[in-house]
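Handoff note, outgoing to incoming analyst
You'll be picking up this chain. Sequence as last confirmed:
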Amino acid sequence: MTVEAHTDLPKADHAEADAHDIADASARRGDAFSDRALKAARSWTIRVLAIAVGIVLWYVAAKTHLDFYIRFENIPSPIAVAAAFWQHVHELKFYIHRGQP
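Most recent structure output, in case you need it:
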């Protein structure tokens, strides 16, 4: 015994309904992707801003020789650290030391 579902929609309307369902599913996937992308962008923006604020505070503390919990009198500025790092990266000695355990 077979049971057939009788609907009031003709076959053409079924095709339109299926196409509409597919479009809705595609839109939901697109919305989910854009939501994930937006959340990732916000997350990375917060991370980058946190690091930038930390570097700016370090720069200001080093330039003003802040003496709060750490004496920044003896701590170089981030610009001096970056310049020294750049110089060391261009020397063979840097890679020899990095290669040792």
